Records
---
Amino acid sequence: MAQLFHPSANTLAKASIVGGALLVALLGGIGWTVENSGYVTSQSVIREQPVPFSHEHHVKGLGIDCRYCHTSVEDSHFAGIPATKTCMTCHSQVWTNTEVLRPVRQSWATNTPIEWNRVHDLADFAYFNHSIHVAKGVGCSTCHGQVDRMPLMWQHSPLTMSWCLECHRAPEKFVRPREQIYNMDYRVERDSGRPEKTQAELGAKLVEEYRIRKDQLTNCSTCHR
């Protein structure tokens, strides 16, 4: 009986299997890269705002505490956006005629809130509470980055589920003393005010001191309600 397939068919079949596997892996890698890119997560994307507010100027330059503007960060799930009245506390006296602050003056004159564009926008199916994170020793810069070095605000972290789980699975790697929550330049070996000089030593004690229930942090209902 005549041979149905050329001898090279075996090589072609093996090459097709290997090539198919590599193609699947390549497509998977591309998908993972796109899914975790700033294009999807909005990480490092600067949002256009009605007023180009500089955290670098206000926080680092003037030394304004986070809580002066974000008044509800310790008591609510929402950190709060400052009312125009807060801005005018200073700007009724300084930079009173600058063009860049015209929207602020108009807002004050017409009693119309400024419509800021949200920078950190979690999906609706994810619940996040600022107050509980502050109470458990999570610093502002842990999630938001060094805002005192941002002339314009951008999203520092990807805000993906895997990123959240890094902390929820091992909070001892991230928590700090409560009095250092708003310190943008916090360093455990320098600023903790405690005998422990490494994050591993201090974090383990703070987890116990703050009664952080590690066994509950990875429950689905903790973030998805």
Note: The chain has a mean pLDDT of 91.
---
Amino acid sequence: MTGPLVNRPDIRLAMLGMVEGNGHPYSWSAIFNGYEPEAMARCPYPGIVQYLAKEPADAFGIPGARVTHIWTDEPEDAIRVSRAARIPHVVQAPEDVIGHVDAVLIATDIGSEHVARCRPFVEAGVPVFVDKPLADNAADLRQFESWLADGRPILSSSCMRYAKEFLPYRLSTSSLGALRFATMTMAKSWKRYGIHALEGLYPILGSGFRTVRNTGAPGRDIVHLTHDGGADIVIATVTDMAGAFGHLQLCGTDAAVHVPFQDTFYAFKAQLAAFVDYLRTGRRPFPHDETRELVTMVIAGLQSREQDGRVVRLDELQVTSR
């Protein structure tokens, strides 16, 4: 991608898809467009209403970009979101936005659906942002790798990559000495939310993950990863553990630190702003190799659990571009 939207004064975005347990169309659209408080109060995700209400009016908006179209799996949801987040156009089918927007955001977090949801836009040459995880199986990851090898503009990330609470340790962990152990706790499921924990840790530890072992069960995943840097990593993803969402612990030879993730609005806005910058410049905010490694870890964790906690080496599953 070479930044084809560099000279467009206003980037038009479509917000596409909405699945149970994920209110991104409300929150992401509001971050771009602002919102109507009375309509947003009817959002079925109270947490979104609460963190949006904490922000001053001038915190909303990403310069030069706006959500202009919306489609959701249930038509009535699109109407509600459009009213809450000031989206002027509700469409009857996702493909209806082709030719009317400059890029689309796939706002769903079921990885096994993402190839089908993205395909019409990838084939039409429309840039796509895909919510995490990009994929949750090897076949779909290979399809994304093929599209990316052909130069298709696709970006995917977790907002945890942009968490401001973790920034000091993304810059340096020297105050902790050599890292020996790290943990992250997360709610919901490994399949949909394990990527949050992994992508929060990845910019701190860097590339070099080698093995994944999941000794948990559906609804309760306990995942042990090893890394070339000498640290062991344990991620616990438990369905109802909302009280420990995004709690990071780093333990080194000199010191240890516990850092809770707190500012969801900041992380989402930084994530979305990074996509807009990618549209403007063609420069990725981070290499796609990182996304490939992260998604491979998600897949390995699923396979390990299915195989009674077998240690899965990532090089067993390595998916590379052509």
Note: The two ends are 17 Å apart (CA to CA).
---
Amino acid sequence: MEEKEINYARLKQGGFLRQRQKEDFFSIRLRIVGGQLTSDQLRSLANAADKYGKGEIHITSRQGAEISFVELEDADAMLNELESANVHQGTCGPRVRGVVACQGDRVCTHGLIDALGIARKIDEKYFASELPSKFKFAVTGCPSSCMKPQENDFGIMGGLEPEWIDDKCTRCGLCETTCPVDAIKIENDTLYFDEEKCNLCGDCVFVCPTSAWIEVKSGYTIWVGGKVGRHPELAIKLIDIVDEKTLFEIIEKTLDFYRENAPAGERFRDTLKRVGLEKYKADVLE
């Protein structure tokens, strides 16, 4: 019987990664937004790994999961079982990859945004969208940058702009002690606030016992053009503190810009360098 030809490019689009073993084994990537799973989903993953693989699950660097040593003839059955448990197929190749996120203000005391909620919205709208090359989103709840937005094509960071009210301040010094970037100094009963140093973490607002520090606005700071790999580069800050509507407008325009200006295989950062950051800004920050 003639051996069936396998379309490996198509398989890769669905998150199938060929293994180095001579047998036709695949490591199958699964779509897990922000690394968040229910206990039922975890049990379904364990069952699938036992039944179709070698009982092993690899947690990827982007909060996903891969089940290895799956034979191609078993892949459909495994994926159908996982789909019924709300665990979905992943992707590889030149398209929007899985979105990584911290837990944001759902759990973390420093969280300024619902990072997981934003990640799920991005995933729902853009996951596996075709692009010139791979494109990675990261959402982090605050300037502690646990999810490393500066290392991703499009990074989103929660931020809070503070304001100081003199007549409410007792000069207790808690804000000065707490500020992680030394933007606040108290000398001779006078408070100095260096807005250029401020990283928009909001710690001064949260620690102040007299509400002398208040929130002016909060939202999303955007970083673009980061990447790691063999030629790593940190992302460039695009804009401080926009609202959710503006955030998604910028995402939409960014992906359109990338599609329109990049040849196949060119990473987004390289497109920005070739076409020009100012051209990009003009297109997306109208």
Note: The two ends are 61 Å apart (CA to CA).
